[in-house]
Every structure is written in C-alpha cells, then in structure tokens.
C-alpha cells in the first residue's frame, strides 16, 4: 500500500473547481469526480480538513463592481461558500465518505458553528471536516481561510486544488509563455506578486511554517500523488 507523507492535510477547493464546464454553479459529475479524488486519499488514513471557495456562485469583488458595498458583497460570498460546503458534504456522503460541515458564520439551524476542538475530534475520528463561510470576515478570501484553518487544526500542509497545475511566472491563462515553478519560496512568491493566491494567505502560511502545494484538481490522481510526496504541482516552502 502507498504510504502517505502527511497525516493531516488542509485541502482548499476553489469554488470554480465545482463548475466543471458549466458557466456557474455546481456540476454534479464534477463534484462526484472530486469526491473520488478525496476518497482515494481518505482511504490511505489521511485526516482531511476542507475549505471550499464560493467563486462559482458569488465573488465579493464582482458585487462591488456594480456599486454594492464591499462588506455586504463579501458576506454574500461567504454564504455562497456555505452552499458549496453543503453540496460537497452531500456528494461525499453519496460516495461513502463521512463528512461534517462547520460554519464560521452562525446559522445553527442549517449547519453547526466552527468549534476548533470539535473539528479536531472529528478529524481524529476519521471524518472529513468541511469549513464553510471562509474566515467569517469580509475583506478576506477562502485562501486565507485555508491558511487559518490549516494552522488551527495543525495540518502539515495546505493543498490548493485549482484549475491550473501549479504556480507559473505569470497567469498561464493570460500569458501562454509563462513557465511553471517546481517549487518556490514564500518570500519569492510574495515579492513576485503572483496572483494565484493572495498575499495574506501566503504570509500566514509562511509565518506558521505551513507549506502549500498548488496543483490541478482536474488531473486524475494528482491529489493522491501530492499526499504521497510525489513530484506534482508547485510546492511553496519556507
Ligand atoms: N502566477 C500564476 N500561476 C498560476 N496561476 C495563476 C497565476 N496568476 C494567476 N493565476 C490564476 O489563479 C487561479 C488559481 O486561483 P483560484 O483561487 O483557484 O482561482 P479563483 O480565485 O479564480 O477561483 C488560476 O486559475 C490562474 O488562472
Ligand atoms: O474569509 C472570507 C472568505 C470569503 N469571503 C468572500 O467570499 C467570496 C468567495 O470566496 P473566494 O473568492 O475565496 O472563493 P474561490 O476563489 O476559492 O472560489 C470572496 O470573493 C469574498 O467575497 C470573505 O469575504 N471572507
């Protein structure tokens, strides 16, 4: 059996990863595929915390473009991540995984609040914990929520699952000549202003000495390869 390199991980799934080829929302085949990738890692005995984005439903910055107050738009974005968290937990249940959702915003009739000790207990019991509502604060992103929750639960690494297969010298969607880094230090990633992740998230992980690996969620088996310490995506190190 393959031996995982990490005992506990924090997986950040971008909201847009749930869209598949749709224009917005959640694509059932895509979410089922992602659950399959997560199951392959859970079956190795790895403890998994998940932070889910909301960009497939609502993005705060898009709201402000229409003149909406930034904080109001950000709260709407956080509620979007709650919907994704609920959809993901249900899809996980359908593929035989035991998941719990916790929310950084209080909506007790819908999901339980974020309680760090309880989240850690669930992880120890082998349950997957999905953290909804980001950090619970406007002006932040779910990447920062991943850095925060990853630090809080004592994860050994933050795995950022996204649409690109690593960190490039420039946004590969806009610049076809961009080249991929195998690894990059936090300081270089921050000083190069790489838009793949926000500086707050990079800085928090750097200060907590929590490495990040950026990889493609659409590449079959990539998540398992990262967890097993194989060369996949881009590693951000201290
Ligand atoms: N230097 C870079 N290397 C890799 N991806 C980058 C870079 N700059 C910008 N990106 C973009 O960042 C996105 C990954 O961030 P993510 O949070 O998943 O996306 P979004 O915020 O759009 O949901 C990629 O889809 C890619 O287009
Ligand atoms: O701690 C947080 C996390 C998220 N958001 C809001 O929720 C939206 C969705 O999160 P994000 O853009 O990080 O999702 P992703 O890019 O991963 O799909 C953001 O645009 C913000 O408006 C926020 O205000 N605070």
UniProtKB/TrEMBL annotation:
Coiled coil: none annotated. CDD domains: AAK_UMPK-PyrH-Ec. Residues 7-215 form the Aspartate/glutamate/uridylate kinase domain. ATP binds at residues 12-15, 55, 59, 162, 168, 171. Signal peptide: none annotated. It is found in: Cytoplasm. Belongs to the UMP kinase family. This is Uridylate kinase. It comes from Dechloromonas denitrificans. The gene is pyrH.
């Amino acid at each position: 059996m393959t031996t995982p390199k990490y005992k506990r991980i924090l997986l950040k799934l971008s909201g847009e990863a749930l869209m598949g080829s749709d224009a917005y929302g959640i694509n059932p085949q895509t979410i089922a595929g992602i659950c399959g990738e997560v199951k392959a890692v859970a079956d190795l005995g790895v403890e998994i915390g998940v932070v889910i984005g909301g960009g497939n439903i609502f993005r705060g910055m898009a709201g402000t473009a229409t003149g909406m107050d930034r904080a109001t738009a950000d709260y709407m974005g956080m509620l979007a991540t709650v919907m994704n968290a609920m959809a993901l937990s249900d899809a996980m249940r359908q593929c035989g995984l035991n998941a719990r959702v916790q929310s950084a915003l209080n909506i007790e009739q819908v999901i339980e609040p974020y309680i760090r000790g309880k989240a850690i207990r669930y992880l120890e019991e082998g349950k997957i914990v999905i953290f909804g509502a980001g950090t619970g604060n406007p002006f932040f992103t779910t990447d920062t929520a991943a850095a925060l929750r990853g630090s809080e639960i004592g994860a050994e690494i933050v795995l950022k699952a996204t649409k690109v297969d690593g960190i490039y010298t420039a946004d590969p969607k806009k610049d076809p000549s961009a080249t991929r880094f195998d690894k990059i230090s936090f300081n270089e990633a921050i000083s190069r202003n790489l838009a793949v992740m926000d500086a707050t998230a990079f800085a928090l992980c750097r200060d907590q000495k929590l490495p990040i690996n950026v990889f493609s969620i659409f590449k079959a088996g990539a998540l398992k390869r990262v967890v097993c310490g194989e060369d996949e995506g881009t590693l951000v190190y201290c």
